[in-house]
């Protein structure tokens, strides 16, 4: 799909803003509307239309205080309180703070969450998985620290008939404890944290509850496949995560301070890219909005 074709999605819509496509497959910048206006009930209905249409929307050069971010996130739905309480920020348990800065705002040499470096969907480890994630950039590294996004609806359409047959009706077991231990074994979850988020089975192909499109629902939180030997299921998950993220379906966002992106976790996966945590600085804050229990894309 060309940039011009992507622009045609806005035709015949009464949106009080313009959009600039970010990628030929998905993603758009919202132009001509402030975040204060976006929170307004009438305006938000149009913002939500754009969100569903493009799967990812970007606001540039905006001031977004923590309280306003939480309020904006609540327009999309119930905001998640993450069980990893050490990441809560600014006195708002809804905010998940990702920073490599120490008390003096200097690099501490540690990556805040290595799990973010691998393709995943926020909140897939909950029975009610993540509806959307809202990320705001405060401080951005000079090199690296991008966020890459991939369209999971297009990824499913891109699969071979053989792949589609392999995964039809299958469910994967998603576990935050699995992914956390795998990527952050030196800082495991506490027993109390594990108890709050037990492993959950999710369909590998899900139907979007609003657009009704089918998309792949997998990522780094998926540990095993129901009804398959563990090693065989692991291979399927790893192979499909690669097959679902070809370069032509990926949009890589290079952050600058004061940007806000809201993406649809029901139709995208994402990952961060690395940066020099010993010399450079990165400070981001996010809110994840709880959604519905994922629906299997197949009913027969």
Anisotropy-based shape: globular
Query: What's the CATH H-level superfamily name?
Result: Clavaminate synthase-like
**Are there runs of 5+ residues with pLDDT below 50, and where?**
1-7
Q: How many whole angstroms does the radius of gyration measure?
A: 19 Å
> Secondary-structure element sequence?
HEEHHEHEEEEHHEHHEEEEHEEEEE
**What's the rounded overall pLDDT mean?**
92
Largest sheet descriptor: 8 strands, mixed
Termini separation comes to 32 Å
Strand content: 25-35%
Q: What is the CATH architecture term?
A: 4-Layer Sandwich
Total helices: the number is 9
The proportion of residues forming helix, as a percent range, comes to 25-40%
Q: From the helix content, strand content and strand pairing, which structural class follows? A: alpha+beta
Task: Give me the count of strands.
Answer: 17
Which strands sit side by side, in order, in the main sheet? 1-2-3-14-6-16-5-4
| CATH domain class name | Alpha Beta
Give me the oligomer status: single chain
- The CATH topology label is Double-stranded beta-helix
Number of domains in the coordinates?
A: 1
Features:
disordered N terminus, 3-stranded antiparallel β-sheet, Double-stranded beta-helix, 300 residues, alpha+beta
Question: What does this entry look like structurally?
Answer:
The protein has 300 residues and is of the alpha+beta class. It has helices spanning 3-7, 35-39, 41-54, 66-76, 152-158, 161-167, 176-183, 191-196, 230-243; strands spanning 18-21, 28-31, 56-59, 88-89, 92-99, 130-139, 147-151, 171-174, 200-203, 205-207, 214-216, 222-225, 250-253, 260-264, 268-272, 283-290, 295-296. It has an eight-stranded mixed sheet. It is globular, with a radius of gyration of 19 Å.
